[in-house]
Design a protein that fits this description.
mainly alpha, single chain, rod-shaped, 2 domains
């Protein structure tokens, strides 16, 4: 028997008028567990972006955009 089946078996023993209390407990437990998992914020996600470009790409972006400098020369 799986653990879920054992839990369902125990739940079936609980009287109907006590199920609302159990439901609130399970709901709070589930919310606590899901809240404890670290979620990546936008800044964490942005830190994961990897860009391959020449060292002067940021300072000379206008030259790359106009075509005076060529990204093909980078590789």
């Amino acid at each position: 028997m799986t653990l879920k089946e054992l839990i369902y078996q125990e739940i079936s023993k609980i009287e109907e008028d006590n199920l609302d209390e159990l439901y609130e407990f399970v709901k709070q437990f589930a919310q606590t567990k899901s809240a404890s998992k670290p979620k990546l914020g936008i800044l964490s996600k942005l830190k994961q972006i990897k860009i391959q470009a020449p060292r002067d790409f940021a300072s000379d972006i206008d030259l790359y955009m106009s075509g005076e400098k060529n990204l093909d020369d980078f590789h």
